[in-house]
# Entry
Amino acid sequence: MIKIDKKTIFFGFLSAVTASMVMVSSAKADNFYIAKPNNETSKLQAYLKFTKIVSLIEEQYVDELNTSDIIDKALKGLLSNLDAHSSFMDAKESKELEVQTNGEFGGLGISVGMKDGALTVIAPIEGTPADRAGMKANDIILKINDEATIGMTIDKAVSLMRGKPGTPITLTVIRKGEMKPLVIKIVRDIIEIQSVYAKTIDDDILYLRITSFDQKVVSSMKKAIKEHPKTKGIILDLRNNPGGLLNQAIGVVDMFVDHGIIVSQKGRVASENIIYNARRRGSDTKTPLVVLVNDGSASASEIVSGSLQDNKRAIIVGQKTFGKGSVQVVMPIGNGESIRLTIARYYLPSGRTIQAVGVTPDIEVPYGEIKKAEEIISIKEKDLRKHLQSELEKVNGVKKSKKDKKNKKIITGEQVYKDLQLKSAVDILKALIISNRK
# Structure
């Protein structure tokens, strides 16, 4: 394999550009007394400025750097300054991304993004090491082990957090409401995600929790709905869901909408301007639907909640979502290197964007627990013996029978009261079910 030095290519390219610019400028000078600035001369000036700075760094910077190193650093800075999701990846980073996408690896089970220049947790994935360790949406990661994240790219951060299963990692995070940074120790593990959890509330409400949009979401949801034929209303919980596959997000919306736009994407290149429409086949447009979101709901979650909201098919409850609505592609550039570039943005049916804006719920409800008044003991004569017997069993530590154990497929009233957002969703859904009877 023949390797060509980047410096030779770069300066050869600049020489060709410069020569062509000079010829164009000379030709135009014959017709005009005063040369007016135009795109060609502006580009030439910009290229010359860049070349001059590269030469100055190469000649005078305190540490010795070759042109390839300087250009790599320049490319990293260029891509990261375009937006939070674009980046330049060298051969090692490109390989790591490929492993992350296609292979099995040890990780934390956490989705991160850049928010106001800070490395921010979008959401920990349910049941993963990060979730068990107590990581929360909107935690700002200040340090990964002993390395500060200030100025660090997302790819670099992900690379540091990923590692051999069973190995420990320490994250220093800033959390709203905490007086000082928290130090959270996590042990890496193989990330295995169950994307859909199905439970029931009061027999007639189906609760579907989607932790991430992997390739089995639509099929798992259809299976769960089929297994609960008595369902009169559905709660779709997308809280702390960092997103995933676009086709699954579209498929979920298509289950409940039978016509119109689901989502569209628009970019500078015409081929990236795509509209995704709903289909009539098999869509449930009647069952009342409430969607739960919060500031950890991002990307595909925002497409689902925003599209259902715009199509007036669901009531959205909770808190404003994260605001990640852009499309990235990975483009190889040779020698194992690649760039990840934002090429389009998603737009909801109404034409509004998600990017940096998010989805505002129809009914905003903070996360918290509903405080109930202490129950006053009120016992009638006929109930006295039964009550005293149950109190005695509590004192003596009598074990409960297997029938009394909590069914993991059922959400109890007590559990609902511990989640203000879920309680609000249940109340709204019950009202919709009642109005649906008419």
